Structures are given as C-alpha cells and as structure tokens.
Amino acid sequence: MPTVSQNALFGMGNPLLDISAVVDKDFLDKYGLKPNDQILAEEKHKALFDEIVNKSKVEYHAGGSTQNSVKIAQWMIQEPHKVATFFGCIGTDHFGEILKQKAAEAHVDAHYYEQSQEPTGTCAACITGDNRSLVANLAAANCYNKEKHLDVDSNWSLVEKAQVYYIAGFFLTVSPESILKVAKHASVNNKIFGLNLSAPFISQFFKEPLMKVMPYVDIIFGNETVSIKNISTEDIAEIAQRVQSLPKFNKNRQRIVVFTQGREDTVATVGDRVKVFPVLDIDQNDIVDTNGAGDAFVGGFLSELVQEKPLEECIRAGHYAANVIIRRVGCTFPEKPDFQ
C-alpha cells in the first residue's frame, strides 16, 4: 500500500463557521427558504443570523464545504497528520480563532489568509426533519486574495507538494483566478484535480468561470440537484456522460464524473460506461443531520484517491464517511473510523 505523504491533498475554499439549529416551516417561509437548498445570503437574510442564534438551541461547527471534505479525508487517513492542506480567508476575530483551533484539532494543515476588513464567514444550517437549508454569509471568505496568499512562494510550495487537488464550486464565486492557477498546475503536471458542482446556483449564475476551469477537471462531483450549462436532460446517467465528454486538456486522464443522490444509488462514469453504486443502508430513525453528507462523501473518496486506490474503493469510502456523518449533528465524526 502506498504510504501517503504530508500535504499530498490540497483543498481551497470558503472557511465558514456553521451555525446549526432546528427550525420550523414558518421560519423557512419567513426568509423565503426551500427546505433543502444552499444559497448565498442576501440583504433579506441578514436578520436570520441574529434570529437563529437568539431563538434556537444552536451548535457551532467548523464548516465550509471544501474544509469539511479535507477534514474528513484526514480523519479517514489518520496518520500521518497534515496529509491535507487547506487555504481560505478568515477574519481576525473570535470565529476565526475557532476555525484555526478546529483545523488544528482535525490535524489539517490550514494556512488561512487573515484580514481585518470583514468578519469570519458563517453558514446558517436551518434544519427541518432530515432536510437542511444552508444560507452562507461569506464575509471574510469572499476576500481571498490570490496575489497576497496563493502566489506567495511559501504557500505555492505547498500547492506544488500535493498530488490531488479538490475545490468546491462555491469558491468560483470568490476567486476563479486562484482555481485556474491550481487547476492548470495539476493538468500540466499530470496530477488529479477535482471540482464539485456544489449547488444549482453555481452552474446557473457562474457558468462562465465554471466552463473556463472545466477543461482542467479530472473528477467532477455533484448531486441530484445540480444541472449544467446546455444539458437539458433529467437522466442523471446521461448528464454524467455528457459532463465526462466536455473538452479536456490533459488527455492522459479520462474525466471521471461522480453524482450522489442522497439515499439513492451513486452514479459514476467508469471508462465509457456509467455504473451505479448502492449506498449503505441506514434506518431513517438513525439520520440526525444530512448537512455534511455530500462533503463527507467527497472526503472519504479523496482519502482513498490520495492513496492511489481504484475508483470503486474511493466510492466505498465515500459512502462509509457519509453514513457516519449523517448520524451526527454537523460535519462531525467519532475519534477513529472503522472503515475496512
């Protein structure tokens, strides 16, 4: 088995402090939220953050999609520590300190760009039953600066150390030029670059930066809610094949497309075919919070990918990690995995 080295996995994204609370339908209606969605906060949502903190029993967890995934990958790998590197922007405030502490506890090598103009970003996870509606107030996360952080030699050297790269599509709204620089580096050096379509609004409103980076993407992750430019079919297997066949620069690696569908089978392209992979059974009563399921799947997948395991093993690890995370509140996990 290949031993995995420190900083072999690189992630970059929006570090957010998750504020999770159980709410009711009236709360969702008041702020115009769908029960199961992911959106960026607008002016009308500003009061939501105060209300959720003051009204409900809340839990705080280190979050942000990419940060969750690399944290779970590190948890799955266990040793050595700091296999996973993470870049993102935080504020010089209490929430920022919490994120730094949580990253250290998870043994992730986090290098945050810290600035004082904006506070650390937050994400309200509004939970109703086994649905969750996420409202992200990016704040500091939106201030990531390529020139002042990614381009700095000591930081770029960490990018160069990595073999596998993963960025959630959410970061396309923040620094597409940073994503492109990392993606091109991976492509030119025949390393693996993964991107997540993340949420419907990414392919709807950020098509241009998405399609600019697409030729460099080796693995595309998505779920049953994502759609993509110019693909009008509802058939998820057909969508996967069409995404796979989009133009690609590095011809040495055929693009892999992996779509999760909640409790339904995961769909993935294997060579020129599409295969389905059943998820692990779970009693509905054991589901506590589906909030981190997608991020956890990717984290499990990356933990095996960085160890050069085959696709089937990566998906099996993804299913395992998601199955663990949905039994708990937030994207949290027990001390050690028991993935065999």
Automatic annotation (TrEMBL):
Gene3D superfamilies: 3.30.1110.10, 3.40.1190.20. Keywords: ATP-binding, Kinase, Magnesium, Metal-binding, Nucleotide-binding, Nucleus, Phosphoprotein, Purine salvage, Transferase. Binds 3 Mg(2+) ions per subunit. Pathway: Purine metabolism; AMP biosynthesis via salvage pathway; AMP from adenosine: step 1/1. The keyword Nucleotide-binding applies. The keyword NAD does not apply. Residues 27-334 form the Carbohydrate kinase PfkB domain. It is found in: Nucleus. It holds the Pfam family PfkB. GO terms for biological process: AMP salvage; purine nucleobase metabolic process; purine ribonucleoside salvage. Its cofactor is Mg(2+). It catalyses: adenosine + ATP = AMP + ADP + H(+). Its EC number is 2.7.1.20. GO terms for cellular component: cytosol; nucleus. The active site is at D295. One of its GO terms (molecular function) is metal ion binding. Monomer. Belongs to the carbohydrate kinase PfkB family. Catalyzes the phosphorylation of the purine nucleoside adenosine at the 5' position in an ATP-dependent manner. Serves as a potential regulator of concentrations of extracellular adenosine and intracellular adenine nucleotides. ATP dependent phosphorylation of adenosine and other related nucleoside analogs to monophosphate derivatives. This is Adenosine kinase. It comes from Culter alburnus.
